[in-house]
Structure of 5'(3')-deoxyribonucleotidase:
Amino acid sequence: MTLFVDMDEVLADTYQAHIDVYNSEFGASLTREECYGKEVWQCVPEEHQQSVRQHAHTRGFFKELPVIENSSEVLEQLNEKYKVYIASAAMQFPNSLEEKSDWLDNHFSFIPWQRRILCGYKHILKGDLLIDDRSYNLERFNGKTILFTSPHNVNTKGFDRANTWLEIADKLL
Amino acid sequence: MTLFVDMDEVLADTYQAHIDVYNSEFGASLTREECYGKEVWQCVPEEHQQSVRQHAHTRGFFKELPVIENSSEVLEQLNEKYKVYIASAAMQFPNSLEEKSDWLDNHFSFIPWQRRILCGYKHILKGDLLIDDRSYNLERFNGKTILFTSPHNVNTKGFDRANTWLEIADKLL
């Protein structure tokens, strides 16, 4: 079985990083819970939205992202059992490309370069399962899908869902 | 029809760049013809091989690659007719990732980020046709293939082959 795993908000806590950078920059105290059902930029005053939307274009942003709890341990076990690829729609942010490669070297070095994919559309991936936080990626994928919970997708219906990597372990190991 | 097109030695003349950098560094006069059937590093004295093998790890190497003749004009026409993706096995060279994105912006800006793929293995791509200079990519691809001629593959048998982009136009337009 070939398994594709997204990076941002599945392995890397990009969502929390947006909140942390915003709170630090504006002395705010935005929480994840306040953001449920929205993107972070939609949860800040209008005059700060442009700043939040610039995070992903900022050098360094993707370099130090926190690792989502249990993702490394569970993915390493999945990697023993399945053909695991990491697939990130990163081409939108050229500044992120090398940082993402470095981040994988630091935290997911057991996934070799041959199984790393930086792309745009994900429906061109041929495999059996896609784990992703974006419903538009899952909808067009030609295989099974798991929606990984992120604050922005808590209200999304119609997908098999995992809230944590331990739930993914339960489903797949 | 979904079409995947490789970058190095199909759109970008990486092979010639290896020769040019080598000739410039060592005051040599290696030609493409002397390299037929081999990689560039295999065509230089043993004491220079390590230097040639470092080119792809050197910052700047992928930034200024020459565009292969007629590739831009023909690909732009193919892009009107088919779903064209560019797929480069670039993950081996993290230093190349942003340079490749910039190079595409400069020379193939009509291919948007959604249709750009930096990957390792290419057999995970789901589509109808792969144009590539590496037989190992074509062998495992689950669709039609065209081997694009590069000095290193002139002796490779068993593939539908195109020597130039005008030949690709003849086949596909």
Q: What stands out?
A: Chain B touches chain A through 28 residues (CB under 8 Å). The CA atoms of residues 38 and 107 of chain B lie 28 Å apart. Chain B has two domains: 2-13+65-172, 14-57.
